[in-house]
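Extended Data, panel c. Modelled sequence:
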Amino acid sequence: MRAARRHIAAITPVVIAALLLTGCTVRIIDPSADDARSPAPQEAGPAPQDETTPRATSSPDEEDADATPPALSAPNAAERERLIAAATITMTCPSGPLDHDGAVVRVEGSCANLVIDIDAGVVIADDVDELLLRGSGTVVYAGTIGTATVSGSANEVYWTGPTPTLEDDGSANSLGRG
């Protein structure tokens, strides 16, 4: 009898913990991934190539089509335009780090180095040679990026140009073209 009570007493906390933890989940949603999985019929086009897959050689006609710069996905382009209109700070490339937590910052013009120490903010930039993102929960939209280093967590970085050299030392970051 005593052994049965010990068994019940030992298993009760385990069962309660399992029941409490069953409903807890974490999900990171990448809207560009949803768009890639389910394009609308009028938007369906050739499948994008994996960034690690080399492109096949193309004919001169195809090269002219590739000459147009890539753009953000439709939802990201609309979001970028909405955020530019809602920018709380507009500036040229800063000489020091951006540290305006929670702000929507528009950086106009090319930047050799852009250091972002913002938490829960948005940065919309044009072309950046070297991007260093040390904040958390920050979204960055840029034209072209030469090198991107991210050391924060839960950040999103989108670019329209060629794939930059990437270094992600953080956690739960989403880095991708458009």
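Strands lie at 89-92, 104-108, 111-116, 122-125, 128-133, 139-142, 145-150, 156-159, 165-168, 174-177. This feature is highlighted in the accompanying rendering.
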